[in-house]
Amino acid sequence: MERGALVLLRAAAALGVAVTAAATTAAETRLVIIGGGDRPPETLARFVGWAGGASARILVLPWASGEPKASCETILEELKPHAPAAATCGPHATLDAKGKAVPLDAERRRDAFSALARATGVFFTGGDQARIMDVLADAELLAALKARFAAGVAFGGTSAGAAVMSARMITGEGDFTVIDGDEVEVRPGLGLVEGVIVDQHFVRRQRENRLFGLVLKYPGERGVGIDEGTALLVTDGRYAEVLGRGPVMLVDAKGPDRLEITLLRAGQTIDLRARP
After folding, report:
1. Which backbone phi and psi does 21 adopt, to 5 degrees?
2. SS3 call for 259
3. Could you say which DSSP state residue 254 is in?
4. Where are the beta strands (DSSP E) in the chain?
5. What is the pTM of this model?
6. Stretch 21-40: mean pLDDT
7. Which of 43, 150, 234, 270 is 20 to 30 A from 248 in CA distance terms?
8. CA angle 69, 35, 115 (to 5 degrees)
């Protein structure tokens, strides 16, 4: 049994939460990364389908948002046409005076474990990706999320909920007028897809500089810039398909000052671990 699954079981047991057997079983991983803006209906349809279709139980986590209720309800409305069995909002995070999220209190923490144990799909809203990882300073909750993902629970996110998916997460702070990875603030993210750095709202907000700088600084990692209204769907941590109206830009370092750029459009697929 994987360490993350053991952590989930122990934490849930301490909280008196029942956990389904799926939490301890390795399965194909499924990830929907939306670049922000409009969510293409076909993307949410795929997410619900991966989560079980008519049997899907979707948990929406609004931890990134400064307006969690409104943010979560927007996603719930967009999920309705795809008819999951259930779609609910998870416990929201409390923000401090500086707008930073703080770890969940005991009651909300218990609710989070309970909802996570039942969910077949987990979706992160937009907002500030740093807040998600502030909540997940709770190591047991972070391990529980990762265990559910490894067990085959479909995960998805939009905007900030996309940025958090890579192990090296762009926070949004820094000097983006230059191509210099040292000027781009990063911190650990969820790490649900390895070997890549995810950026969002990519073409629309002209975020090339910061991703270019990071790929030059970390040449072993591939930059993945996802535009608004566009999604990258990833299975088994590597096999990716583009859906939506905009491009996904892949950025690979080919030398100290040389980058290779590849644009992928709707319907195109790629193995993210197959580097040019």
Report:
1. -60, -25
2. strand
3. E
4. 30-34, 57-61, 86-89, 94-95, 101-102, 121-124, 154-158, 168-174, 184-188, 196-200, 222-226, 230-235, 239-244, 248-255, 258-264, 269-271
5. 0.91
6. 81
7. 150
8. 40
